[in-house]
Task: structure prediction
Amino acid sequence: MDYFLIQGGKRLRGVVEINGAKNAVLPIMAACIMCEGEVTLRGVPDLVDVRTMEHLLNQLGVATRREPGGVMRLKVEDEMNCHADYDLVRRMRASVCVMGPLLGRRHKAQVSMPGGCAIGDRPINLHVAGLAALGADVDLVNGDILLKAKRLHGAELFLGGPFGSTVTGTANVMMAACLAEGTTVIESAACEPEIADLAEFLNSCGARITGHGTPRVSITGVRQLGGCEHTVIPDRIEAGTFMMAGAITNGELRLRNCRLEHLLAVVDRLRAIGVNVEREDDEVVVSSARRLEPVDVTSQPYPGFPTDLQAQIMALLSLADGNSVVTEKIYPDRFMHVAELNRLGAKLRKEGPTVIVQGVKRLVGAQVMASDLRASAALVLAGLVAKGETRVNRVYHIDRGYEKIERRLRAVGAEIERQSTAEE
Ligand code: EPU
Result:
């Protein structure tokens, strides 16, 4: 099992190229199930999750071919199999994104119910209710959700839940509705840029979607979708993570392929902390003064502060000059990083869905355990600044969402190495 060894204290300086967005490319790849004709995707990151999605699509009869420079070509070759089994859904929850496309195009989808995961309960009731509103019959068979519909029809439906809308649920309903008869209106649709990018992709294939990027999305069904070429939007979570890496090390990073307009809530909080974030030509320059101000942060659906950066900003705030309050409004249990950051000398106290962060002068290296993708990123950030050596175990989590993170951090001055151990 791989782990990272980090010698903290190096200022990061240099240029980082941001990759295509994981959470955009995964549903877009799934949407290819519906396309008659070849799809060419550009800006596809080389991530474990992308490989898992490729594997699943291959099982579902979609041929995938990678070419150098982040290009992927996908083409449906066989439409017989409609079953995404437990083994793959268990490994990656985004596997549920095949549900809408399978139902829309093949009229049947059997997808294993994803269980809970390290960030808490993650139900799919809203996905299922949305697809049922389009006319699908729903059954639970041996732990699988089985959806069937001879013909889907348009509907007006509401996708809000107790924690806001659902990102992949919106993706599923939007995809299925592309091939339904008539018009579907989704109220309380997720507004995340990744959903807007999926809609842009579908429209390039011949779909008729309007309102994407707003809470009211309208989809008029078409008979078929073709292929297209599409460039995936840059990963705003990766960009935000690198911004915090620059800030926590008092360094200066220049980010390329970074869409600042997708990160306004993050930039707002970073500036309040005292981090400089400026656009210079086609780069975003992030630098930080020595003193970090404490701030309050609440994660919310887009355009609010993303839950996927909550752990990372907590690492940064643990070194602020005073007390901060971090509240999680999407996944109230997404706090596995709290105890690990405390092992590095942070002073964090959890009170329900809130963490009180008492700023400390320094962090000190230790062994810590990554529990999920974003928590691992937070531990790496803390390790970059902790005095001495930090060992981050189980970095397979980070490989799911950040391509070659240690090499890219090393290229801008970090002392971080990947090592392997046979045991664990
Ligand atoms: N929810 C329901 N019912 C549902 C679906 C969701 O109650 O049917 C609740 C969830 O429990 C949660 C909230 O609604 O409290 C939002 O969940 P959502 O469905 O939006 O999450 P998701 O689509 O499963 C995506 C990202 C996550 C990201 C969340 C929130 C992908 C592949 N995943 O998950 O990304 O945290 O949106 O922004 O797009 C990550 O990249 O590390 C990651 C976990």
User: Anything to note?
Assistant: The chain has a mean pLDDT of 96. The pocket of EPU is lined by residues 23, 26, 93-94, 121-127, 161, 163, 166-169, 194, 307-308, 330-331, 373-374, 401 (CB under 6 Å). Residues 236-248 form the longest helix (13 residues). The longest strand covers residues 2-7.
